[in-house]
């Protein structure tokens, strides 16, 4: 993909990529507040209702690596536009669904389209923006889009469901998807890709996709069957066996789906591991804080969404206004640690929320500290993409987005289950429902704080420090060398 585009054309391309990503991220949260209305209208059983979320997550998380590699082969713009088209069509099918089976199938198709578009987005950004500070600003905007989209989705989902109907949470994607797709054809530089003759590694695709899908399925169904049940452990074992076969295949395949050279950089594999810990804490926070506000404090769906908007504003302030300058001055590692520190402080505050919590005192400071995500995510994204060759950018992008989905799925499933278990135990002891619920939520927040503390330790131990800039006439060369060292560290 050419990188000699004018600043204006690159800005338009970034806007298109962010718009497509916003639509996809919105859909992940906009559905959650509409679930009661969907259940009442279509007659879902309580267990069946969860599949409106699970079907999307399984398809999205399972197809990311395959979509990223196919993007390298057939062209990333082509894959992005095709993904938007599939996602938009599936959104219409969701909106007109008249029974549970149709909605679940359409949601699976939505997840597939989302994976196609998301898997190549980062690859296009890092090839479009090659200058470090400019790339930092672009990644900051992209990270903000992902982080704020979930909060906006909760507000929009509540408003559309209350004012119109649940069908419109899907129909709203139609004009956005059409506009983003048409603009993508104009704004994104055309790239031919390596060509399918370079090899799509069909066996690797089968092993990787099946292993990831089964793994995500094991996670999302664990809350209903138990983490130590034979069903969950059997699925986990099957997933691990398939993924082990996938890794072995990547080491020997002529054209691997995920070239293992991408993982030789300790910054790359370290960033992906840190991201899983951070996203597990972040997404579970979003779900469980919403439950606390509704089930304990008595907030409605729309009120909950608006109460979480300060988090999106804080993330915007950090990611759009500060992250790129901070990375240019202090390096990705230092900025990442600062962001993780802010997030950890917020989770520690949440671990003491009372039954009769007051928003200004107990929740607003947490929302503002969540702005640390706007520092951490751009720095982490830069590290996660740093070791990829241009021809591997799609695969690295797919890997990074895959670990996002796995981290989010594990966090929500595990912490929600543990919170429910603690709540059930407290209810069995005769505690009032609000007190029992709060006790369960506190446990989840404590575990979230532990995950963030582990991410900080991993960042300190694994990630390499950026080389200090040299002074004098040789400084520019030293700066370039330092950047090269950070890019290829490991």
Automatic annotation (TrEMBL):
Region (Disordered): 468-490
Subcellular compartments: Cell membrane
Biased composition (Basic and acidic residues): 477-490
Transmembrane segments: 12-37, 49-67, 79-98, 104-129, 141-160, 166-188, 200-220, 232-248, 269-293, 299-322, 334-351, 363-385, 406-423, 443-463
Domain Major facilitator superfamily (MFS) profile: 13-467
Alphabetical keyword list: Cell membrane, Membrane, Transmembrane, Transmembrane helix, Transport
Membrane topology recorded in Swiss-Prot or TrEMBL: Multi-pass membrane protein
Domain of life: Bacteria
Protein name: MFS transporter
Native source species: Actinomadura yumaensis
């Amino acid at each position: 993909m050419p990188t000699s585009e004018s600043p204006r054309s690159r800005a338009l391309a970034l806007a298109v990529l962010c718009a497509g990503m916003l639509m996809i991220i919105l859909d992940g949260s906009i559905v959650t507040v509409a679930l009661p209305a969907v259940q009442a209208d279509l007659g879902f059983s309580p267990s069946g209702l969860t599949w409106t979320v699970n079907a999307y997550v399984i398809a999205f998380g399972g197809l990311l690596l395959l979509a990223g590699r196919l993007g390298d082969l057939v062209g990333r713009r082509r894959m992005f536009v095709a993904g938007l088209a599939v996602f938009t069509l599936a959104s219409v099918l969701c909106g007109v669904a008249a029974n549970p089976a149709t909605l679940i199938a359409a949601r699976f198709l939505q997840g597939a389209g989302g994976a196609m578009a998301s898997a190549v987005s980062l690859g296009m950004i890092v090839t479009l923006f090659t200058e470090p500070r400019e790339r930092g600003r672009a990644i900051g905007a992209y990270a903000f889009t992902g982080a704020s989209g979930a909060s906006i989705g909760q507000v929009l989902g509540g408003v559309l469901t209350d004012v119109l109907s649940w069908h419109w949470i899907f129909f709203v994607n139609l004009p956005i998807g059409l506009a983003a797709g048409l603009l993508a054809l104009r704004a994104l530089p055309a790239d031919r890709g390596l060509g399918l003759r370079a090899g799509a590694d069909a066996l690797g695709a089968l092993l990787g996709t099946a292993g990831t899908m089964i793994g995500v399925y094991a996670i999302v169904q664990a809350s209903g069957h138990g983490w130590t049940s034979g069903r969950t452990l059997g699925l986990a074992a099957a997933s691990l066996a398939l993924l082990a076969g996938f890794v072995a295949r990547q080491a020997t395949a002529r054209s691997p789906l995920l070239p293992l050279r991408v993982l030789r950089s300790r910054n790359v594999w370290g960033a992906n591991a840190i991201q899983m810990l951070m996203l597990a804490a972040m997404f579970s926070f979003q779900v469980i804080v919403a439950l606390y506000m509704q089930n304990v404090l008595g907030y409605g769906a729309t009120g909950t969404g608006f109460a979480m908007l300060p988090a999106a504003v804080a993330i915007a302030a950090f990611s759009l206004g500060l992250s790129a300058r901070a990375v240019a001055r202090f390096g990705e590692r230092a900025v990442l640690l600062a962001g993780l520190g802010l997030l950890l402080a917020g989770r520690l505050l949440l671990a003491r929320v009372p039954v009769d919590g007051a928003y200004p005192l107990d929740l607003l400071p947490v929302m503002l500290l969540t702005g640390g995500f706007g520092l951490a995510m751009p720095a982490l994204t830069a590290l996660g993409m740093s070791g990829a060759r241009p021809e591997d950018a799609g695969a690295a992008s797919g890997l990074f987005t895959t670990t996002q989905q796995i981290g989010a799925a594990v966090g929500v499933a595990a912490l929600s289950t543990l919170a429910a278990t603690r709540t059930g135990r407290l209810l069995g002891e005769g505690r009032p429902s609000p007190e029992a619920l709060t006790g369960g939520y506190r446990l989840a927040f404590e575990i979230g704080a532990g995950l963030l503390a582990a991410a900080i330790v991993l960042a300190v131990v694994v990630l390499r420090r950026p080389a200090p800039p040299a002074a004098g006439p040789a400084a520019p060369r030293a700066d370039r060398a330092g950047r090269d060292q950070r890019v290829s560290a490991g």
